[in-house]
């Protein structure tokens, strides 16, 4: 690989990271406002116009906050765990198309790559619990591993139904196969299972067992603070955006619109609208549903 190619890919990685960081700030603000509306509160109002700069203030606070390292922690594992959680969340974006021909690398085995990479974050959560040398953190890490490994099975099976319908693992070709009818109309159960399993993979309400204060204190993150804790937080929102856009691509037709091909030319905006709809549903579920107990969580996975 030549020096210019290295510079090119480095620039793409930096640009992608900055874009995802901006999306995370937008999602944090949107979620706080959405939950405030559901719970009849105002939400952020002071920092910036209508509180729009509140996520930026929170990010600066986390970065500048003292980063405490417990004296009994396994330093190597403790420092590496947040990176192991975030890197897979970042790497899956290498093959997720934002619009037609707008993708870093359109892989023929794109869905296989996404599934293979996304499961690696489980190791980071276990490492966070182990490296903290805290029994509650370790328990939270093991619960996270049990939850994520269990829900990988229905998650992958729902993806396989789409692959069977489209006869391909290429995401752009899957979207092209929905030019006449969206797969959600053919496989509504697969959509429900994919979204439910996706929420469990994210560890969001009602599946936020591994870091539920009422269950195991702060879960695998109990000994983390400052910038290291923010990396876990960043990975969660990046994964939330990834799950939402995958729902839009796999079940809602992505940038295509059945019977009206002219709308497909809107590309990015059309995918963004569908993704926002899924994200709004995720926020709505968080503000509506109570947290499951761990036995209810595993029972649902088996069912």
Task: Provide key terms for this protein.
single chain; 303 residues; 13 helices
Reconstruct the topology from this structure:
Elements: H1 3-38, H2 54-64, H3 75-91, H4 110-118, H5 121-131, H6 135-166, H7 171-176, H8 183-186, H9 188-202, H10 213-216, H11 226-250, H12 268-288, H13 294-302
Brief write-up:
The protein has 303 residues and is mainly α. The protein is 66% helix and 0% strand. α3 runs antiparallel to α5 (121-131), α3 (75-91) runs parallel beside α11 and α11 packs across α12 (268-288).
Order of helices and strands: HHHHHHHHHHHHH
Helix content: 55-70%
Hey, roughly how much beta strand do the residues contain? under 5%
**Alpha-carbon Rg, integer:** 20 Å
Distance between the termini: 49 Å
Q: What is the subunit arrangement here?
A: single chain
Structural class: mainly alpha
Uncertain ranges: none
**Helix segment tally:** 13
Mean pLDDT: 87
Biggest beta sheet summary: none
Instruction: Name the overall outline.
Output: globular
Number of strands: 0
Describe this structure in words.
- The protein is mainly alpha-helical.
- It is built from 13 helices and no strands.
- It is globular and about 60 Å long.
- 37% of the residues are buried.
- The mean pLDDT is 87.
